[in-house]
Write a structure and sequence with these properties.
Number of strands: 9
Number of domains: 1
Strand order of the largest sheet: 1-3-4-5-6-7-8-9
CATH architecture: Beta Barrel
Shape: elongated
Strand content: over 45%
Distance between the termini: 39 Å
CATH topology: Porin
Largest sheet: 8 strands, antiparallel, barrel
Helix content: under 10%
Order of helices and strands: HEEEEEEEEE
CATH class: Mainly Beta
Length: 175
């Protein structure tokens, strides 16, 4: 099931490529609070978030945006890393305001000197609202507020993540 969902998400991104009128490349700065079911909240402030996004604008109203993120923490021989792949669909109501839906997977790995390592994959889906502001013809800012849900798996409790981000975007052609 995971393989089919990821193939569908990536397929959507590549289907948009031939009709692309504009490409947007960007990264975000963010604040998030994750609330795992039965666990303590985790708060993160990231500058930048470690997310690289590439938006393929298929029309004035629609963009498909694959996203990739990698994060690694280590201390005294212990390490924790995540690799996330996702795709978002953005629908613009005006040249500034948009809604988005997204889905993807994260590969989470932990390694310590005492017990060795372990890794697992967890899917997630969510959505939110966004606002964009042009700085000049090829540069812009974005603000987003969203919520993501990761269902329970054999390896993870379910969790809900609330996030607020501000991003910078570079465009392939004049806006």
């Amino acid at each position: 099931m995971k393989r089919y969902l990821m193939t569908a998400l990536l397929g959507l991104a590549f289907l948009a490529t031939p009709a692309v009128a504009q490409v947007e490349v960007g990264t975000d700065f963010g604040f998030s609070i994750a609330s795992p079911d039965g666990g303590d909240n985790v708060t993160a402030i990231s500058v930048p978030t470690g997310v690289l996004r590439v938006g393929f604008h298929t029309s004035d109203a629609l963009a498909i945006e694959p996203r990739v993120a990698f994060n690694r923490l280590s201390s005294d021989g212990d390490s924790f890393s995540t690799l996330s792949l996702a795709a978002a669909i953005l629908y613009s109501f005006t040249d500034r305001f948009y809604l988005f839906g997204e889905g993807g997977f994260s590969r989470i790995s932990a390694d310590d000197d005492d017990d060795g390592g372990d890794s697992a994959t967890q899917g997630s889906f969510g959505g939110g609202i966004g606002l964009r502001k042009a700085i000049d013809n090829r540069l812009g800012l974005r603000w987003e507020a969203g919520v993501d849900f990761a269902p329970e798996t054999d390896d993870f409790a379910s969790s809900t993540t609330f996030s607020v981000t501000m991003g910078i975007s570079f465009f392939s052609e004049r806006r």
